[in-house]
């Protein structure tokens, strides 16, 4: 068992506790609780995504690998209620346990290690982990129908929507290992490792002027696979590129690294490219090459 205390036993075994109840009641509860969650998120002016009933808020972003089904995930967490008075009912973080006056003698205060999508967890937490990244701090929210449902669990009343703060500190899986082996086999002589995890090399660094993250730039770019297969590219020179738009992070960061009038080439791992899901032209866990020329900045 991951932890020794009562709540962590429930954390693991909760799927066995979900009793049968009227589907219409579940739906009514879920709708009411979603309004509560969305009201809280909107009041904080947070940006969120929603997947399979789980709301995901990025507290501290990361360019790390995304958690995928079957990956080994090691993480810190804090579970709590979202309605006043807020109750922290479980955590593996000592400072949070002390603050919440939880028994620190009966719990293992160290990161939890699970197999994503396979280890028995509260359903909302199981789904929420698959929205997180290595090195990222996140908060996930979910309704009681994928939490403890109509069960009274310790001080938690039935139909309680929950929140979990999560920090993934270690992550590994077949896709990650395969891609890392590809990158290790490549000759990256002359490249510099960026803090985001991409490798870059200046072909022409002609000035000290560089774009900001919200800049509109004009130039040319090409995204290709490591074998030279072109994925996408601008149709011509001096094309407008809005760095606040939808694009692989490698492209956005590449333009910010490029100098005005300069050229840069980048090798980027999949978290900065097309990720664990890939695209119609790029398989999952495949690094990409990005070539950029920056003509002007507006």
Structural summary, described in words:
This protein is an alpha+beta fold and 298 residues long. It folds into two domains: 6-172, Chitinase A, domain 3, CATH 3.10.50; 176-297, Chitinase A, domain 3 (Roll), CATH 3.10.50. The protein is 21% helix and 30% strand. It is built from six helices and 14 strands. The chain has helices at residues 6-13, 23-44, 94-99, 123-129, 174-184, 249-257; strands at residues 48-51, 54-60, 72-81, 88-91, 112-115, 137-142, 162-172, 192-193, 199-204, 216-225, 230-233, 239-242, 263-268, 288-297. The strands form two sheets. Strands 1, 2, 3, 4, 5, 6 and 7 form a seven-stranded antiparallel beta sheet that branches. Strands 8, 9, 10, 11, 12, 13 and 14 form a seven-stranded antiparallel beta sheet that branches. The longest helix has 22 residues, at 23-44. The N and C termini lie far apart (57 Å).
- Rg calc: 23 Å
Distance between the termini: 57 Å
- CATH fold-level label of the largest domain: Chitinase A, domain 3
Question: Major β-sheet, in short?
Answer: 7 strands, antiparallel
Percent of residues in β-strands: 25-35%
What is the average per-residue confidence, as pLDDT, rounded to a whole number? 92
CATH architecture of the largest domain: Roll
Short description:
With 298 residues, the protein is an alpha+beta fold.
